[in-house]
Automatic annotation (TrEMBL):
Gene3D superfamilies: Spore Coat Polysaccharide Biosynthesis Protein SpsA, Chain A (3.90.550.10). Pathway: Glycan metabolism; pectin biosynthesis. The lineage of its organism: Eukaryota, Viridiplantae, Streptophyta, Embryophyta, Tracheophyta. This is Hexosyltransferase. Belongs to the glycosyltransferase 8 family. Its EC number is 2.4.1.-. Keywords: Glycoprotein, Glycosyltransferase, Membrane, Signal, Signal-anchor, Transferase, Transmembrane, Transmembrane helix. InterPro entries: Glyco_trans_8, Glycosyltrans_8_dom-fam, Nucleotide-diphossugar_trans. Residues 1-27 form the signal peptide. It holds the Pfam family Glyco_transf_8.
Length: 347
């Protein structure tokens, strides 16, 4: 400090200027020093991922993945996309479709700067389409309109798209997503891991089960719980079968009679449970975010894993930032592209 006080600033400034002129800012990562909006996090640029020699480049080789886009969950979305690219044999064949409640120029810019080589499109989702149909659930986060956007995939996505993988933003894929894409759906509209050991009755109220007409809903079916955060959807069959309207009918009834408490999941169960293509459980190790009230830590289930899903209240980026992570959160951390001021100082 004494040197600064006694030295003339002019030689120092000239010295700094000469350094800049002789060594133009090669080592400064200008791409990182950007903040598109106060409410949009800053992310590191991901590396380019290229196809292996066995990959094709025809439209029929494309793998379509749909996700919602929201500033609050953007960090999770980035990690999910990064994980898929990193584990894919043919990453250039992945086509991402992001649904947003806004025109999303800031979100679009953030994705483009983080993944310069990503093949993606954004679609505006009109929240008013569903806002009047939402009933209050056990957790406020479940009542956001974007949680219901998956119901309208078939209406929003291009009409020539036959199939799409829908994924939540609080997960990472640790296997080649092409394996999930290539499954035989056996003429079903939806494919997802089923959990038949779960107590299915708990997803609906006594008012539902005590009504003689409503309780016949699952007659002739063997209904099992499935998580709607990981689904393969035949959007062509969805359109032809008018399934958006069928889900909306249950939502409308829920507004008059309390049939369930868990947001957008139960109407999916009412329409599809017992009539989906069952997928191996490895493709949705869900519940890592804990329960819907306290988000307690949970352990991994035994067996192989292709997808880790932090469904529930606890999200890995929030627990890591609070320095109170669960053990499983460290499995998410390697895919986190968030560029915090702390990580800037550590480099």
């Amino acid at each position: 400090m004494a040197l600064w006080g006694t030295s003339s600033p002019q030689p120092l400034l000239l010295g700094l200027l000469s350094i800049l002129l002789l060594h133009p800012i090669i080592g400064i990562r200008l791409g990182i020093v950007r903040r598109p909006s106060p409410d949009i996090p800053v992310f590191r640029e991901a590396p380019a991922f290229r196809n292996g020699d066995q990959c094709g480049y025809k439209n029929s080789d494309d793998i379509h993945v749909a996700m919602t886009l929201d500033a609050n969950y953007l960090r999770g979305t980035m990690a999910a996309v990064f994980s898929m690219l990193q584990h894919s044999t043919c990453p250039e064949n992945l086509k991402f479709h992001f649904l947003s409640a806004h025109t999303a120029p800031k979100l679009f810019s953030s994705i483009k700067s983080t993944f310069p080589y990503l093949n993606f499109k954004t679609y505006a989702f009109d929240s008013n389409r569903v806002r009047g149909k939402i009933s209050r659930s056990i957790r406020q986060a479940l009542d956001q309109p974007m949680n219901y956007a998956r119901i309208y995939l078939a209406d929003i996505l291009p009409s020539d798209m036959g199939r799409v993988i829908y994924l939540d933003s609080d997960l990472v894929v640790v296997d080649d997503i092409a394996k999930l894409w290539g499954l035989d759906m056996e003429d079903k509209v939806v494919a997802a891991p089923e959990y038949c050991q779960a107590n299915f009755t708990q997803y609906f109220t006594d008012a539902f089960w005590s009504d003689p007409d409503l309780s016949k809903t699952f007659q002739g079916r063997n209904p099992c719980y499935f998580n709607t955060g990981v689904m393969v959807v035949d959007v062509d069959k969805w359109r032809k079968g008018g399934y958006t309207q069928k889900v909306e009918e249950w939502m409308a009834l829920q507004k008059r009679v309390r049939l369930y408490h868990l947001g957008s999941l139960p109407p999916f169960l009412l329409v599809f449970a017992g009539n989906i293509k069952a997928v191996d459980h490895r493709w949705n190790l869900h519940g890592l975010g804990g329960d819907n009230f306290e988000g307690r830590c949970r352990s991994l289930h035994p067996g192989p894993i292709s997808l880790l899903h932090w469904s529930g209240k606890g999200k890995p980026w929030l627990r890591l930032d609070s320095r109170r992570p669960c053990t499983v959160d460290h499995l998410w951390a390697p895919y986190d592209l968030y560029y915090s001021s702390r990580s800037f100082l550590e480099e």
